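Everyone, study these two lines:
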Amino acid sequence: MTQVDVRQQRPTSLPAVERLSRPGRADEPLALLYLDLDDFKTVNDTHGHAAGDRLLESVAERMRGLLREGDVPARLGGDEFVVLAAGCTAEEAPGFGRRLIETIGAPYDLGSGTSARIGVSIGIAMAREHGREAADLLRAADAALYQAKFDGGSRCRAASGDDLARLRRLGSRSAPEPTRRSAAA
């Protein structure tokens, strides 16, 4: 997984996941927000990949405007991003998610008088509550994101006990985890 710092559009020197294991961070609240753009494929299919690339750059720019000192954003690939929000509590994370949804969901100028509108679905996992390892947090946030997409998209959802139980059941059966795209279709 190549991590890209959306603040500068280049690889980061400190992967976001390393923040989880750094000394002195055990008591710091930490939220992982997993973002997946809604209807991005439509922009690519309708307006072309160059327009899709411009839209992704605009999304990154809008995200930069909402980040606080210490937040670490990354583009996972395609239209998926994560934000590791340092000092963000379980009470604050949904509000941050809603601000991201509102900001990213505003219309985009694609050039040549063309505009597009997309949404974003967000899953939230909290360090310590949903896991201590980066992979556990990503899985929990992904499960919450899956549910946000299933509920109609352009939503923010925190990982719940039900989401985590569903993940455990899937893992114990060695069944592949369902993809968000097929369930949301």
Observations:
- Residues 49-66 form the longest helix (18 residues).
- The helical segments are 40-47, 49-66, 93-104, 134-150, 161-172, 180-184.
- Confidence is low (pLDDT under 50) at residues 1-5, 7-14, 180-185.
- The longest strand covers residues 30-38.
